[in-house]
Design brief:
The chain has one domain (3-305). 71% of the residues lie in helices and 2% in strands. The chain contains 12 helices and 2 strands. It has a two-stranded antiparallel sheet. The chain is globular, with a radius of gyration of 19 Å. The N and C termini lie close together (7 Å).
Amino acid sequence: MSPVVALLVAGALEAVVGEPPTRYHPVAWLGSLVAPLDREWTRPLLVGSFGAVALPLAAAAVVAGAVWVAGSGPPLGGALVAGLALFLSTSLRRLLTVARSVVADAETDIDAAREGLLALAGRDAAALSPGLLRSAAVESVAENLADGLVAPLSAFVLVAAVAVTAGVPALPLAAGAAAWVKAVNTMDSMLGYRAKRVGTPAARLDDAVMWLPARLSAALLAVAFGSARPLAHARAWLAGVPSPNSGWPMGVAAAGLDVRLEKPGVYVLNPDAALPDAAAAGRGVRAVGVAGVLTYVLAGLSLAALGVGT
């Protein structure tokens, strides 16, 4: 059972399929299990802590078990199921498509752009100008590079390498790790708001999980922009971003495009620049796409270099 084959399967499905309909997506099914936690509780931190531990572990166990069972059949069965699981744990093409749509609609149909942004960013778009809509699209697609692709792929590669070193089956554990990361991120996106105490444990766990992927995403974006300078500029703006992680890829995007990225009332990145026009926003979305391809390449090279591919 080869993790490299699983990675190739996931990348091929991403390129050809993009993302299955919401009703058939396991992440949506997970969301239906998370949703009942979103209410008032007498002891919200206790409930939230239990949910933050139990639900991601359950998702990981289901995926690891499916890969294990498939691996006991045809030679490539485990790799194919692991590739499918990895594909469902990641997202790139759909994010890029939605971001491009918001950027285009901001020029011609602002109401459609505001509605489309809801699929990318959890913010009130009703009063956003075209420039702020384009800014939100670039911010969201840069942040989701880390959440939706780099984090689960990094977990897959890291756990596969550790498992091979320990002499235990790599593929079920690696696929389970990717699913675990996706589940943690899903819980944070649904519950991780200041007003929701039940979501605090999931938010803190997500902060820890995303520490390395966010910085790796920033480095990959800098490569996509063809310069290391955006990394240095991004560092200067991090203090103004509430999240300890999302400021890195967003800041690199702001510096690489030389535009201001702004969430009104929350943060401003590169404050002395203008908001992105359509051309700059389009370049930002393309740079995230390039960084996404680089992520797959780096993951494959890492697995091969570590001897995990056999």
